[in-house]
From TrEMBL:
It holds the Pfam family GntP_permease. This is GntP family permease. It comes from Tumebacillus amylolyticus. It comes from the Bacteria. The keyword Transmembrane helix applies. Keywords: Membrane, Transmembrane, Transmembrane helix.
């Protein structure tokens, strides 16, 4: 058993290492999955074709529309100027004295409205960098600030968020995107508050040490370059030409449409579970329980409508960019889902190996309550894969039915399982090899050495919050 477990740990360690070094997971996940299979004495080609590829293909089948529509929605919001308008207006309303809060809120609004996490980072960065420079806050704190706003409470804690991490548990537990709303709101507020306190503490420490925004940074946005040129020539900052933004209310309209329709299609008489006859679905499409896929249908309908509204509110601005924008969105969606699917396929091979039974039993026994055990399992697998959605999918595929059976036996609501699993996926996933972390640092022109400490602090805050909620809920 020791050698079987060692085979798994070696393959996991190698996958984490190559991901940290920037090599594509889509290539190395199957390689290291087959390495683990070979070391465990399993046949290589059947492990690849029947275990790895089957589960990877199932993941693409289930979630590709959401990845694609999310990428398109975010890209259209970027092209029509709505994302920039929202970020600009939030920053303007909060002001430079509360720069960190302004950036967190701007990221949170866009993420909760359905804009892809990566698009949020691109959209907010120019305004955030300008605001940090104006407030003389070290730029190295900017990645942690964006991570708090985009990668935490609005990604998986607040009820109704249309991000994929909040949709995956619905197929396992028969819930919807609004599962356990009170727990989600409390958890989201805790993460938001504690994260802000950490970042403000770091800002005060830097100010006391006389550290400002800094100089010689890479990838400085145009607005910051304009500030630097104005300062160098003695021109007032007010003279620097500012771009024109659409009305904030018009910019918010597509986000509101997505949120409202997602709720309508999930929890009202117009819900997606009532769109088709149950008998027809069972007989023709072999869908035994429509509740297991209704959340995906609801989000697909909401995002599709949101894309149409986003196209209409500034059609002239989007017209010349549409072909290139849609191509970029599709390419981004393909890369994102196939990277994640490769990680899911990797996990599916791992779960067939003899050593995995020992690891599974250790995780299941890691807590005396299903919520604690689930929080541990999802956190561990999200951390190993460096992916919130990948780790969540693997954990629920391997152990979701067991957790649901335990919940039913003890009278525990499946909605609590959903919310804890979703929030746990956004805990230790942001280790250094996480794709979103690497992309965020590249966008801001900073390094792990400069900024990862604060990203990791936010990660710890998120993880501790999940275990605190699971612990409190397990008492009652």
């Amino acid at each position: 058993m020791f050698l079987d477990i060692l085979a798994i740990l070696v393959s996991l360690g190698l996958l984490m290492f190559v991901a940290y070094r920037g090599y594509p997971v889509i290539i190395f996940a199957p390689i290291f999955a087959l390495l683990a299979a070979g070391l465990s004495g399993l046949a290589l080609m059947p492990s690849y074709s029947e275990s790895f590829m089957t589960q990877a293909a199932n993941y693409v089948k289930s979630y590709f529309p959401i990845f694609l529509l999310g990428a398109i929605f975010g890209k259209v919001m970027e092209m029509n100027g709505a994302a920039a308008s929202i970020a600009h207006n939030v920053v303007k309303a909060i002001g430079s004295k509360r720069a960190i809060l302004a950036v967190v809120l701007a990221c949170g609004i866009l993420t909760y409205g359905g804009v892809s996490l990566f698009v949020v980072a691109f959209a907010v960065y120019p305004f955030a960098a300008a605001l940090f420079r104006e407030a003389d806050i070290p730029k190295r704190l900017l990645p942690g600030t964006i991570a708090l706003g985009a990668f935490t409470f609005t990604m998986d804690a607040l009820p109704g968020t249309p991000q994929i991490q909040n949709i995956i548990p619905t197929a396992v537990f028969g819930t919807d995107a609004y599962a356990a709303p009170v727990v989600g709101i409390i958890g989201g507020l805790l993460v938001f508050t504690c994260g802000l306190l950490w970042l403000e503490r770091r800002r005060r420490q830097a100010a006391a040490a006389g550290e400002g925004y800094g100089t010689g940074h890479r990838n400085e946005p145009e607005v910051v370059q304009a500030q630097l040129e104005a300062a160098a020539t003695g021109v007032s900052k007010g003279v620097v030409e500012q771009p024109k933004y659409m009305s904030i209310w018009l910019a918010l309209l597509p986000l509101v449409v997505v949120l409202v329709l997602n709720y309508v299609f999930s929890r009202t008489g117009l819900g997606a579970d009532k769109w088709y006859d149950a008998g027809m679905l069972k007989q023709t499409f072999k869908i035994e329980n429509v509740k297991n896929i209704v959340s995906s249908w609801a989000l697909i309908g909401a995002l599709t409508t949101g894309v149409v509204v986003a196209l209409l509110i500034n059609a002239r601005e989007v017209k010349g960019k549409l072909a290139g924008g849609l191509t970029a969105a599709a390419a981004g969606a393909l890369l994102a889902i196939f990277n994640t699917a490769s990680e899911v396929g990797f996990g599916n091979v791992i779960k067939t190996l003899p050593g995995f039974s020992g690891i599974r039993d250790a995780i299941l026994g890691g807590g005396s309550h299903p919520l604690l055990s689930e929080a541990l399992a999802v956190n561990v697998l999200a951390g190993i894969t460096g992916s919130a959605s990948g780790g969540l999918s693997i954990a629920l595929d391997v152990m979701g039915k067991q957790y649901l059976a335990l919940a039913n036996a003890t009278g525990l609501s499946p909605e609590l399982l959903h919310r804890i699993a979703s929030m746990a996926s956004g805990g230790m996933d942001t280790l250094p090899h996480n794709g979103a972390v690497i992309t965020l640092l590249a966008i801001t022109g900073l390094t792990h050495r400069q900024s990862y400490k604060d990203i990791f602090a936010i990660t710890v805050v998120k993880t501790l919050t999940v275990f605190l909620l699971a612990g409190v809920l397990s008492i009652f």
